[in-house]
Structures
1.
Amino acid sequence: MILDPNHLSALSSILRHGSFEAAATELTVTPSAISQRIKALEDRVGAALINRGPPCTGTPAGLRIAQHAEDIGLLEAKLARELTLDQGTGPARVRVAVPADVLATWFIDAMAQVDGLLFDLVVDDQDHSAEWLRRGEVSAAITVGGQPVSGCDSYALGALRYIATASPAYMQQWFAEGVNERSLALAPCLTFNRKDNLQRTWIIEQMGCRISPPSHFLPSPQGFVDAAIAGLGWGMNPVGLAKSALNDGRLRPLLPDAPLDVGLTWQVGRVLSSALVPLTRAVRQTAAKELLPSQS
């Protein structure tokens, strides 16, 4: 099936900005023209592509087709570079799924090393970024563990170290008699969102049992650190974010020498692998500086 590039750009722009009007402004056409392009595209594929908002969001078919359009843009940009052609359409856009802690600690440094790309980041809990790749809604992702996603090239990056931390006052209030099954079952913890299993994983590793402590839901890596310092709860914080507070005593480890190391993998769709070589190189080089070596 051949799809009109103008129709595809209209779809991508609507999903990027959340409205027909904003898409019309970006593409320098009227909202009526955008509406006509979307109707023609929906007639062509035989499915609804947009949930009319506000904001406008994509249906599963719409999200998949929009990602297809961005993939085409990446490949065309690569071809233009190889043929030393002028790129009149501007930089290509790449959609990448990135765990929030990775974005907060080192991924921006990798992004800064790559020219000619506009980034559209999907930020999710680390255990679920691979799902975006499996659904075909992103071109690349940083995933947990080494399990490759079908149709992707995979590169082990290293391990992001977490430490279970809390404020000294919190430790005195909840763990005065030690960190054990009983105290962990009562002490409030911090959880990124309802997909976040880091705290439970650490408890299983240290205690050998499953415990579901009371929890605050706080979808912010820096907010995690701030909330722990404020005494709201204990949580798994990346060493890079918690280092300063650990050094000056605002945070303490729940247990000595009990880190949780989470292995990360860079995965990129095989069709786009050659077009994203500069990004892959930057991600791997930055990860080598910031992460612990992968365990064999």
2.
Amino acid sequence: MASGEDWLFRPVIAGLCRFESLNDGTLSLADIADLNEALDVHAENERRLAAKTKEK
């Protein structure tokens, strides 16, 4: 994908929103940023959980 498109489509691919919401303006760039931040937090929490599980 071209630069920036992966950031825009990441919440769609993760199932957090529909592609149409990007096209029709239902979601703002701030909304997309919030969704991407939530995905980052989720990924970090999963990484930490996996690391802790591996330690045991």
3.
Amino acid sequence: MTQLIVARINVMLVVILAVASATPAFAQAASSDQLPFYERRGEGWFWYEDKAPEPKEKKSEMAKSPPAAAPVPNDDELDLAKFSSFQKQLDDAMKIATINPSDKNIVRVLALMAETRRKAAVFTDAGMRVAALNPMVDDRYNGQNVRPPNPAATAAWDAASRQSQEANIKALAKTHGIFFFFKSDCPYCHAYAPLLKRFALRHGLTIFPVTMDGATIPDFPDAAPNNGIAGRFIDQLGIPREQFVVPFTVLAKPTAPQEIVPVGFGVMNEDELSERLDLFAREATRARSDARSPGWQAPAGTAAALGRTAAAAGVTPVRP
């Protein structure tokens, strides 16, 4: 009997050893999810699982990549930086020397000013060389409608300009007339009247003289009294009534009462009249050919500014 028990024990030991060699351990024989909670105490206290520490985050691609290189300035930016630096040196030196005019500070200012003149001379020489190769930027080129500096070219330019002015004013005389506002006791009106009359006769312009005080002057004995037209004109032009002065010359178009242009206040010579009327004619032509051009308009306040400027040139204040 004892031998039988021993034999059975040996068989059980063999079976146990065989099972142990086939499976690592009881904890590995079944997953942790299959074990009861009291068997899984190693996972955490009171069912709170202690998670394994997460691996350190990998550095981002941006951290791994090298820093972006600063943009390389172009030639213009480099030149502007040099100019700003030089300008600041001169400005700072001038300020320092103004507060502390020591020999050292003044010499520094004079040296920088001499350097400025040298740079200007280099620019002038380069400009002459470039202009010689590019006539469109040369002020001696007659095609850009700029008065040339050469005396011979100036005379030719003036002659051509006068011829163009004459043609423009004669064309303007066919559609426009001049209103001349004056007072009989205004000495400047008496001085201006014969000049204006002579200019109008030479260009075929019609003069509409308007007397502000009801009396006439020798060159315009048939002047019409002011019936309110002066007030309408200055209101339309934006002239404060307290600033209205005579003599006052206005260009107007009888067929278009809204087209009123102040030619000027005070006494003007024939050259000034020609230049102003020619300017209006050219602006009107440009406006007809280019819809974007507004032509010669008189915004509110423009004529009033002309009146204040002309006060020293010889005008007489008057209430319209």
4.
Amino acid sequence: MAYGSRKAERVRLETRYPVNLMGIDGTWRRSCVLLDVSQSGARLEVDGTLDVLRAQEFFLLLSSRGLAYRRCELVRVEGAQVGVRFIEEKKDKRRPIIPK
């Protein structure tokens, strides 16, 4: 089921799945709930103020220890809900150089 003009299929979670947002530099952290997720992004309900999200880029911590995470950017804010897009690392498509 795709919402709006999204290209990737979203999976809506039946139970409240707690996650955290953390600044790239690690100076701030916000608790939130994962509402739905796809391969390219997610929708979250954030606890507390959203002023720290002005950074536009942050980590979505999927585990309590921070071992499972995705780097993301802010797409939209609607009240306490935010939409994020996952940032994928650019893969070098050139052939690797093999030393002789």
